[in-house]
Amino acid sequence: MKSAVLVFPGSNCDRDLAVAIREVTGREAAMVWHRDTELPAGTDFIAIPGGFSYGDYLRSGAMAARSPIMRAVTEAASKGVPVIGVCNGFQVLTEAGLLPGALMRNAGLHFVCRPVGLRVENSQSIFTCRYEAGEEITVPVAHHDGNYQADPATLDRLEGEGRIAFRYTGEVNGSARNIAGILNESGNVLGLMPHPERALEPAHGGTDGRRLFEGLLEAVA
Predict the structure, then answer these.
(1) Which helix or strand (DSSP H or E) is residue 182 part of?
(2) 219: pLDDT confidence band, cut at 50, 70 and 90?
(3) What sign does the dihedral 212-216-219-221 (CA atoms) show?
(4) How far is residue 87's CA from residue 141's CA, in Å, rounded to a whole number?
(5) 210-220 and 14-25 helices, crossing angle to 10°
(6) Distance between CA atoms of residues 131 and 161, nearest Å
(7) CA distance 52 to 2
(8) Other CB atoms closer than 10 Å to residue 161's CB: what's the count?
């Protein structure tokens, strides 16, 4: 699997994602600078990392969503290339219009950084195929603007179309219907607030995030 990890000014989880991809796939990911206009030829998977792209000026992810490389990402996603946005990457995907809704300040306005419980809502996507529907897993979060919000019609559509990938099992940040991750209509774009790349090895305290990358590798292969 030939992977690309985007790098923005302020990204601080890009290396974490690259290491996770290397550990699971055995291949190094290409680190793609935000001012590039093209992805490496033959890219099979695109990862948008967490951090504070552009210092979270204006809104989290707003400036990154307008970086030159995002035009190439949007085009690749329209052709079915899998794209995952983790934490700030989720924010970038909503700001770029690749996913609906918006990520707002956490309830209570506090930064949240701890392992949280997730329930797998959809086990049929390329990202979740190694999980069981209804399974509960533990993955760390680290965010200040992880409160997913959308209008009621959008939330109903996400529910009805099975596009909620993960849901928090308890209160984390005040997100609408405890949504932790959503899919696009085609199922090849995932926005996820928790960090699966930080739950890859026993030394991390758990390996529940590893199966996301394993499932993706299996689906792409």
Answers:
(1) strand 179-183
(2) confident
(3) negative
(4) 8
(5) 60
(6) 19
(7) 25
(8) 12
What is the token pair recorded at 16? 């974490």
Residue 36, Cβ neighbours under 10 Å: how many?
16
For residue range 164-207, what is the model confidence (pLDDT) as tens digits?
A: 999 999 999 999 999 999 999 999 999 999 999 999 999 989 99
Place of tokens 């009805």: 160
- Altogether, the residues listed in the chain come to a count of 221
Q: Which residues are catalytic?
A: 87, 195, 197
Determine what percent of the chain is predicted with pLDDT higher than 90. 92
| DSSP H stretches of helix in the chain | 14-25, 69-78, 88-95, 152-160, 210-220
Structure tokens at 66: 């307008």
Query: Quick check: 164 and 174 in contact, CB under 8 A?
Result: no
User: CA 20 to CA 43: how far, in whole Å?
Assistant: 17
Q: What pLDDT is attached to residue 55?
A: 82
**48 beta partners:** 85
Q: Which residue has the tokens 């996400």?
A: 158
> Would you say domain 3-220 falls under CATH 3.40.50.880?
yes
Q: Where would I find the beta strands (DSSP E) of 29-150?
A: 30-33, 45-48, 83-86, 102-104, 112-120, 136-143, 147-149
Report the alpha-carbon distance of residue 146 to residue 109 in Å, rounded. Answer: 10
